[in-house]
């Protein structure tokens, strides 16, 4: 009885319970990121079909968006993705490809004034913009959660508890093309 009490006191004082709380916070934050990506994936077919009616000769762009969405939704998202850097990077890659395809779709939409005036397109575009903002917020929350967790994993004396119970540093959210996006885009109105 005394040994059990001593073990409970030791575990609570060494950060074990904090690891449980922070690990769950990271998982919850990641679930929200995935939730927002799913929301975006659900909006895309409606957006593509609306654009398709106006821009039938933009077939390549529409197919690109459809392929990127299929790749993003076919990726199996499990809690283990957070502990597997390769799987985590692959997930980020397919989501990045989908973001790029959506950007190209919005450029196509700019070519068609009737499409931009269509109420259903404007509504879908607004929902997609709101979803992109939600994705950004969810990513920020995930990054903050991972930072807090990782600081505990690496700080003394809780790092000893982390080693004893197998709590490893979790990957933070990164972008695939960090070097490319660090350079400002060239804007040329002459083309």
From TrEMBL:
Membrane topology: Single-pass membrane protein
Keywords linked to the UniProt accession: Membrane, Transmembrane, Transmembrane helix
SUPFAM superfamilies attached to this UniProt entry: LemA-like
Compartments in which it is found: Membrane
Coiled coil: none
Family of this protein: Belongs to the LemA family.
Protein name as it appears in the record: LemA family protein
């Amino acid at each position: 009885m005394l040994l059990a009490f001593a073990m409970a006191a030791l575990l609570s004082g060494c950060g074990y319970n904090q690891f449980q709380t922070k690990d769950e916070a990271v998982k919850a934050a990641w679930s929200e990121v995935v939730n927002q990506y799913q929301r975006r994936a659900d909006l895309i077919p409606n957006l593509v079909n609306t654009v398709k009616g106006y821009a039938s000769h933009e077939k390549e762009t529409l197919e690109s968006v459809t392929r990127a969405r299929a790749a993003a939704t076919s990726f199996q998202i499990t809690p283990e993705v957070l502990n597997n850097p390769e799987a985590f990077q692959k997930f980020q890659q397919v989501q990045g490809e989908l973001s790029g395809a959506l950007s190209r779709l919005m450029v196509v939409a700019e070519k068609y004034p009737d499409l931009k005036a269509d109420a259903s397109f404007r509504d879908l575009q607004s929902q997609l913009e709101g979803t992109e903002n939600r994705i950004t917020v969810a990513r920020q929350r995930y990054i903050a959660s991972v930072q807090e967790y990782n600081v505990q994993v690496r700080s003394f004396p809780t790092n000893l508890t982390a080693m004893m119970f197998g709590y490893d540093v979790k990957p933070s959210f990164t972008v695939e093309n960090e070097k490319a996006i660090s350079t400002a885009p060239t804007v040329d109105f002459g083309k």
